[in-house]
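Tokens for U6 snRNA-associated Sm-like protein LSm1 isoform X2. Go.
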Amino acid sequence: MNYMPGTASLIQDIDTNLVLHQTVERIHVGKKYGDIPRGIFVVRGENVVLLGEIDLEKESDTPLQQVSIEEILEVQRVEQQAKQESEKLKVQALKERGLSIPRADTLDEY
């Protein structure tokens, strides 16, 4: 590798691929959370930004309540439906005033 004078030579063209086992997806909704076991994940190096370890002492001090997978998924679904309904009401109110907000799925990507 050649270094250019006057530059920080931290740029490298190296991707690190990760294989993670016993992975868990944690879903947070309000003060509740649920852990869903996901198994093995392969993460391509171009998608790796930050990876950390959970501090078990701090985790036990959090005011969150662990619930079952079924319960957290139901709470998440209800929250998403409420958010969608709120967005529909907002769009309707803007339309009544002659304004509109373009939906994200109708925007062209450049």
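Helices lie at 56-60, 69-96.
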